[in-house]
Amino acid sequence: MRIFWILLKKELHAFFVSPVAYVVLALVMVLNGFAFRAALSVLESAPSEGSIVSWTFHAMWFWLSYFFIFPLLTMRLFAEEKKMGTLETLFTAPVRAWQVVGSKYLASVIVYCVLWLPSLFNFKFSQWISAGQVEVPAGAMQGAFLILVVMGMFNLAVGCFASSLTANQIVAAILSFTLSLLHFLMGIFIMVVGRKLSDTIVDIVNYFAATEHIRIFTAGLIDSRALVYYLSMSLLFLTFTHHVVEFRRWRP
């Protein structure tokens, strides 16, 4: 494990000394600020059954920031090292492929979690300045950030896999963005044509749909099926990544 922690520290250092992490952080803060303000506008306009948490995470601004996070955080993980030739140099040391994949993935998850701390502050700050008049349901907020973490773990695993396939960061970013977007569009597809399909098909697609998961968790409900789904898919894509890295390591 000592080698793993050394690699993890190296990856975290690479994230925080590069401008990418700060550009993504600024982008997420600005767009989530707009999402929070849009949620306040909805609640100011008329009585609503939804909470400020659910309206914030259903705003267009939230999804706009969401899709750009994963390509920007993962595109360089393997693609840059392959382009620079440092990945081959790394494998001349006594390290294993799972240590390299695991350290890069865990570093991206840590940075991803840090990106959402300002959004958490928005809710706490609104409660403080309004002296508690803005109600922030604790269950809804805990559910929202729980599903954000596990959805992020899945999309970061997809991004790691995309980055392992190519030495071009732009190609890795486009591939990661496309896969994340296709996953999201399943939920939109059901919203558009759901009435024309059988209940069985709607239930199956909703099991995979990110929009449905956000709706349930921001209502304060914890659905263990969604947690199992995202954690299983994360493990699956990390396994794919491990095999790709291991194959390139021993390729003549």
Topology order in helix (H) and strand (E) letters = HHHHHHHHHHHHH
How far apart lie the N and C ends?
Answer: 28 Å
Query: What share of residues are in beta strands?
Result: under 5%
Helical residue percent band:
over 70%
- Regarding quaternary structure, what we see is single chain
| Average residue-wise pLDDT | 82
Structural class: mainly alpha
Q: Count of DSSP helices?
A: 13
Biggest β-sheet description = none
Name the poorly predicted regions. Answer: none
- The gyration radius over C-alpha positions equals 20 Å
| Extended strand count | 0
Shape: globular
Structural overview:
It is a single chain. With about 250 residues, the chain is mainly α. It is about 80% helix and about 0% strand. The chain is built from 13 helices and no strands. It has helices at about 1-15, 20-45, 50-55, 60-75, 80-85, 85-90, 95-115, 115-130, 140-165, 170-195, 200-210, 210-220, 225-250. The protein starts with a helix and ends with a helix.
